[in-house]
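Researcher: Here's a chain I'd like modeled. Treat it as a single chain, no partners, no ligands.
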Amino acid sequence: MIRLVLFDVDGTILHSGGAGIKAFARAFSTEFGIHDGADRLNFSGRTDVSLVREFFSKNQVEPSPENFARYFKAYLFWLEKMMWECKGGACPGVMEFYDALQSLADPPLTGLLTGNIRQGAQIKLVRYNLWEKFPFGAFADDDEERDKIAAVAQKRGSERLGRPIEGAEILVIGDTPLDIRCARAIKAKALAVATGSFTVEELARHAPDWVVADLSKLSAREVVGVA
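Model: Modeled as a single isolated chain. Structure tokens:
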């Protein structure tokens, strides 16, 4: 039975209407004077820290703790502003699936497994009144590599449950091949949703346990393993 469900944020729980990428670009521009920095980055499934490190490398910026701090301070400022200017919202079926999990007689723990830094995830989810639904998670602040973030999420879930949670008891829900990969890194089950930038067919090539157009197409009881 699944005892821990971990949700990705962008493209899985919500769409930010492009606010995240726009905030990245504005922070690159205002802090480092580079006006096309976001154009050359592939954001899908990546962690915020790895994206900034790649930007620094491509633009000969010293990847010092001071420059990371400088960048993320600007990014969070612009993200907060742009989340209220861009049109977005919850992805199709995600809140119904979440509510179905919570309605089970013995609901699994639910948390976040995201490449966002924690404050960035909070800003995005607060905008749509979703932050309080996820009492814990693992973020890019915890590690630059998504596979290691998954291990942190597993550890925190185990601490909350009061016993070690095995990989087979964990479900990772995400919209990119990297979400599927990080699920496999902790031997978890993977549910891929085509609510981001990848199609059902593209996600299916990476052999998730389930792949659907959106979460309205799947029973939470079936996935969790409730008869």
